[in-house]
Specification:
The protein is mainly β. It contains one helix and 39 strands.
Length: about 475
């Protein structure tokens, strides 16, 4: 007779593995948490990679004066030296270096966003030109704001290219002024200096939502397409379709950096260098944010640059104003995610960078606090496991090498879940440059995978994070 064979019960006999060491931190990657590379994080907030490959906290900000009205409708820069703002109390003001000036003009429209550009032509000096599609464009000549005489009423999305001003009227008309004469938009002399109008319609019936000057052309954006206007005069103007299924969300959603154009569309963040279709491969790691932003508030999105990085401000989930800033560094090809700033518009003045917020404040980026308040930040590690996801592990010890400024703190948590915040357990606080933490067995016993969270308040730099797992049997 065959005998019954009783197999012994499998027991947990952990085996030590060499510590896993991380010295490179490369920003956010919101794709599959089981597949992303170890140097990326699936969840981070207010982390900066300015000390790359180390991890640090984003720069803070200071508030210029106090809030005016309840919304900043536009930021403009005169001759790269003077910051101007239009607020939704109907005033245009300039920052004097210590306070907002008295209104340079009042009674302006209080709802539509403004666009700005600098133009000289026959004005004697550069003027800051502004419009928002309501009434006539205005110009600032260094001391006063006045109407731009001769410009079409209702002009919107104004910009300068090759000694002409361009603007959109009635949603489908591209108007341009006489060569170097910003006051003449209609009088024809039958030569190549003439002003004129180009009608651009598309078969969806959508209207133009933005116009931006680039290198050798002007780009005209619809919600679902984009077109390049080449040439410098009525005799050689030509319009070429760049994409018939990709467009921009609004005029504040396109910016030039390092000779190429970055813009935000309904389906992603794109880069366009001309001569090829716009693509969004560089932004795949943050596509999740575009997919999950509040579609009802998408027209509040904006994009800007400080000359080094790209800043994309979007409203997430149910937020009615931007609450999340995606920061791209082309040099390192990294993305960061910032909170605490509600930018509707941005501006660069020399080496300073400013945000115009949805609450009427203008912020100057820089410093170590948010207008005196410490900055809260976090970094969640990739999901780590054994060679097989079915194999058990236990995190035994954790080490950190960091710089923690006085008054700041850093805590390390551990979770056995793939995502979410339901089971974070505090392993310990870090209070020295080199810190070892022992993980209680009850926190991470017999897990198939685990992740760590670094949570900071104040200024912290993390240079190395390592952990020692114990390997168990297949689950």
């Amino acid at each position: 007779m065959p005998r019954n064979i009783v197999m012994p019960q499998q027991t947990w006999v952990p085996t030590n593995r060499n510590p896993i060491i991380q010295r490179e931190f490369k920003g956010i990657d919101k794709r599959d948490p089981f597949s992303i590379s170890p140097e990326f994080s699936p969840d981070l907030v207010n982390i900066s990679l300015d000390q790359y490959p180390s991890l640090s906290v984003r720069p803070g900000y200071s508030v210029l004066g106090s809030a005016i009205g309840s919304k900043v409708l536009g930021l403009g820069v005169w001759k790269d030296s003077e910051l101007h703002a239009v607020f939704n109390d109907g005033t245009w003001r300039k920052w004097t270096g210590s306070a907002w000036s008295a209104a340079l003009v009042s009674g302006l429209d209080t709802s539509a966003p403004y666009s700005f550009c600098n133009f000289k032509g026959n004005l004697g000096d550069f003027n800051l030109i502004a419009c928002n599609g309501v009434g006539v464009p205005r110009r600032y000549d260094g001391s006063t704001v006045q109407n731009l005489t001769g410009a079409p009423s209702g002009a919107n999305f104004i910009d300068e290219h090759d000694n002409r001003l361009y603007a959109i009227v009635n949603g489908i008309e591209i108007h341009y002024c006489e060569l170097s004469v910003p006051s003449n938009w209609t009088v024809i002399a039958q030569n190549d200096s003439d002003p004129g109008t180009i009608i651009k319609e598309i078969n969806t019936g959508k209207k133009i939502v933005g116009l931006k000057a680039g290198t050798g052309h002007v780009t005209v954006y619809f919600p679902t397409s984009m077109h390049e206007l080449y040439g410098t005069s009525p005799s050689d103007f030509s319009m070429v379709e760049a994409a018939n299924d990709i467009g921009a969300i609004n005029n504040n959603c396109a910016v030039n950096l390092d000779g190429v154009t970055y813009f935000v569309g309904d389906r992603g963040i794109y880069v366009y260098a001309g001569g090829a279709r716009p693509n969004k491969r560089f932004s795949e790691r943050v596509q999740w944010y575009i997919d999950n932003m509040n579609q009802a508030a998408k027209n509040t999105c904006c994009i800007g640059t400080d000359g080094l990085k790209l800043y994309v401000s979007i409203p997430m989930n149910s937020s009615t104003a931007p609450d999340t800033t995606l920061v791209y560094n082309p040099m390192f090809d990294t993305w960061e995610v910032w909170g605490g700033i509600s930018a509707l518009c941005m501006a660069k003045v020399d080496r300073s960078f400013y945000y115009g917020e949805s609450n009427g404040r203008v912020l100057l980026q820089g410093g170590t606090t948010d207008n005196g308040a410490q900055i809260a930040s976090r970094w969640v590690t990739h999901l780590f496991s054994n060679n097989s996801l079915a194999q058990r592990l236990r995190v035994h010890r954790i080490w950190s090498v960091s710089d923690i400024q006085p008054g700041s703190n850093m805590n390390i948590f551990l979770s056995k879940s793939v995502t979410g915040d339901s089971d974070w357990n505090l392993v310990g606080s870090v209070n020295s440059p080199v810190k070892r933490l022992i993980v209680p067995p009850s926190i991470a016993s017999k897990a198939n995978w685990a992740r760590l969270k670094i949570e900071c308040l104040g200024q912290v730099a993390l240079h190395e994070l390592s952990w020692e797992p114990k390997t168990g049997p297949l689950a």
